[in-house]
Design brief:
heterodimer, A: mainly alpha, ABC transporter involved in vitamin B12 uptake, BtuC, 16 helices, 72% helix, globular, B: alpha/beta, Rossmann fold, 4-stranded antiparallel beta sheet, 10 helices, 39% helix, 23% strand, binds adenosine-5'-triphosphate, binds magnesium ion
Chain lengths: 357, 253
């Protein structure tokens, strides 16, 4: 077989960035993210930061849907939990006299841990039901979490319907009070998240997830506990979403319950499907598309609508339709998403000039 | 080693197993034969934990494992293959085989997230081990990077054996490992099964319709018919048994 990928040792064969294209892409992205805060304008920074936050969440969704094969439509709930944890924890820390500069170092891991725990609870139905039934169960979890946040009894902590103001992150005295600084933090954590999750799939832990997706009884016969690994998968994915939520809270000045409703869960799933399920780069490609869609719509509606409020009011439903259409089109014509298209490109590059296709 | 005592198992009205008792002796190959629907696969399912018998016991090294879940039995060292291949079709041969080692490997989530360090050392040592003990052993080095879907049926069966071998099992249950294979492939598989027994000392249970193979490589044979155990003994004893001949009337023994 001509594949330009012959390796001398098993250690070399176990590398992740096993060809020049992958290395170039990853180092290029790292360089771009490092340069962005110094060269980009405010608008680009805003969009890039949004992409980074959503990316961290989609990387998590990929673990449970893409790799473990458990359909979840409720992951916005974990983002909500991560996000609301931040103002609540900061208030708590302030009352305990914790210095502001170390609050994020405690609040972020705690927000992640709380989300992971809730993830385990939400994942419980996956032990009994699969497919559509699980999708409905997780979707209900999304509604329940939003319902609880909006509950009058919770309003002193969550602000209820009206949302709540969120603190800025202060890292040992460095106040991240611009979106530019927040972007740097988001980008760094996005890299760490992708790396960590990618690492899982180089070991028995990630392989166990994939085995469950592929054929759960075979996984059992190899000694993989469905109970442990399905819940672990939910915990890891919820943890990523919790991290995304925490960053969301630090990034924006205020959070509202409506930001974490079903539309967001759908956006996460759309990004994953468009990008490519069960692939490391899937979330990256998908998020670029899915965050661009609302921006492009905003732009084109601006031109069409001019000042008309009637036309502008159509933007939100049109956006949902576009997400839905993206999911359907990709599932029908390119179910493995953009990664598949990119793979095909690389394959023909690798074989060139020996053969085409 | 692995023993069943008076196993009874039924599905609604169908009595799949009605009082099956025998011992698969350590280090030997025990054959389980019988006509279609005799209950052979059901017996394997009861042994590997997919079905819980209505009554009777499954014992492993003298311990009662009748109610243990499949993954817990795998961790004890019981491996199996399936009558209709149950490989992970979307994965490569290598990844399928790697999955066999799940219970023997130690990496936990925390070291997996970091990878570099303990997890990496374990992965590379494990890779070297399966290359030697499984991939070279089964002569499948030329296909290790291919997805399962690209392999012919006979090779898929061999990969499934490889995945079970990666578990380094104490007991290996093989459900019709040569079904649907041609003569040459059957010969290869018989040789691999004997090699496994001889090199690794694995206790093997073999369900097979290919009588020549069973008579050739098994030291002990159990015969089932309609869930009843109708005979047990050496291949010679069993093939001379009138009840067995009657059960197989019309088919060549
Ligand atoms: N899950 C099940 N539900 C209902 N009936 C079952 C189930 N599994 C097996 N049976 C029945 O139990 C009986 C024994 O089946 P089993 O698969 O154990 O036979 P077998 O000896 O493996 O046959 P074959 O040689 O065809 O593989 C059959 O009558 C079969 O229809
Ligand atoms: Mg059978």
């Amino acid at each position: 077989m001509i594949n330009g990928n012959l390796k001398a040792t098993y250690a070399a064969d176990e590398q992740v960035l096993n060809n020049a294209y992958k290395r170039a892409f990853v180092y290029g992205m790292a360089l771009l993210c490092a340069a962005l805060p110094f060269v980009a304008n405010d608008y680009i920074i805003l969009v890039a930061a949004q992409m980074g936050i959503i990316l961290i969440a989609v990387v998590g969704v990929n673990v449970v849907i893409g790799y473990t094969g458990l359909l979840s439509l409720g992951h916005a709930a974990f983002i909500a939990i991560g996000a609301y944890s931040i103002p609540i924890l900061h208030t708590l820390f302030a009352s305990l006299g914790v210095p502001e500069g170390i609050m994020p170092f405690l609040a972020i891991p705690l927000a992640v841990a709380i989300s992971a725990l809730v993830g385990i609870v939400v994942g419980l139905p996956s032990l009994r039901v699969k497919g559509l039934y699980l999708a409905v169960a997780t979707l209900s979890a999304n509604f329940i979490v939003i319902f609880l946040i909006e509950l009058d009894a919770m309003a002193p902590y969550t602000g209820g319907f009206n949302g709540i103001n969120t603190p800025e992150a202060n890292l040992l005295g460095w106040q991240l009070d611009t979106q530019r600084e927040m972007f740097a933090l988001i980008a760094a954590l996005a890299f760490v998240t992708i790396l960590g999750v990618q690492n899982l799939f180089r070991t028995r832990v990630g392989r166990a997830f994939i085995a469950i997706r592929e054929r759960d009884y075979s996984a059992e016969v190899l000694g993989i506990s469905l109970l442990r690994y399905k819940l672990l998968s939910f915990a890891i994915s919820a943890a990523c979403c919790g991290l995304a939520g925490a960053l969301f809270a630090y990034f924006y000045a205020r959070i509202l319950p409506e930001q974490f409703e079903l539309v967001l869960s759908l956006q996460l799933v759309a990004a994953l499907i468009v990008g490519g399920m069960g692939r490391t780069m899937g979330p990256v490609f998908g998020v670029i598309i899915v965050v661009m869609v609302p921006e492009l719509l905003k732009y084109s509606f601006g031109i069409i609508a001019g000042g008309s409020a009637d036309v502008a009011a159509l933007r939100a439903p049109v956006q949902e339709i576009v997400f839905g259409a993206l999911i359907i089109i990709f599932l029908m014509f390119e179910p493995l998403g953009i990664t598949q298209i990119v793979d095909r490109g690389f394959r023909s590059l690798n074989r060139w000039p020996f053969a085409r296709g | 080693m692995l023993e069943v005592r008076n196993l009874h198992l039924s599905f609604g009205g169908i009595k799949a197993l009605q009082g099956v008792s025998f011992t698969a002796r350590a280090g030997e190959i025990t054959g389980v034969i019988g006509p279609n629907g005799a209950g052979k696969t059901s017996l394997f399912n009861a042994m590997s934990g997919f079905y819980t018998p209505d009554s009777g016991q499954v014992l492993f090294d003298g311990n009662d494992i009748t109610r243990l879940a499949p993954d817990a039995r795998a961790a004890l060292g019981i491996a199996r293959t399936f009558q209709n291949i149950a490989l992970f079709r979307g994965m490569t041969v290598l990844d399928n085989i790697k999955l066999g080692g799940h219970t023997r490997l130690k990496t936990d989530v925390w070291s997996a997230l970091r990878y570099f360090g303990a997890a990496q050392r374990e992965e590379i040592a494990y890779r070297e081990e399966i290359e030697e003990r499984v991939i070279d052993f089964l002569e499948i080095d030329h296909i290790r990077k291919l997805p399962i879907t690209m392999l012919p049926y006979g090779l898929q069966k061999r990969v499934e054996l490889g995945r079970a071998l990666a578990m380094q099992p104490k007991v290996l249950l093989l459900d019709e490992p040569v079904a649907g294979m041609n003569r040459e492939e059957t010969g290869d598989m018989a040789r691999f099964i004997l090699d496994v027994q001889q090199e690794f000392g694995t206790t093997i249970l073999l369900v097979e319709h290919d009588m020549h193979m069973v008579m050739d490589i098994c030291s002990h044979v159990v015969v089932l018919n309609f869930g009843h155990q109708i005979a047990e003994g050496t291949p010679a004893e069993v093939s001379a048994n009138p009840a067995v001949i009657e059960a197989y009337l019309g088919t060549a023994v």
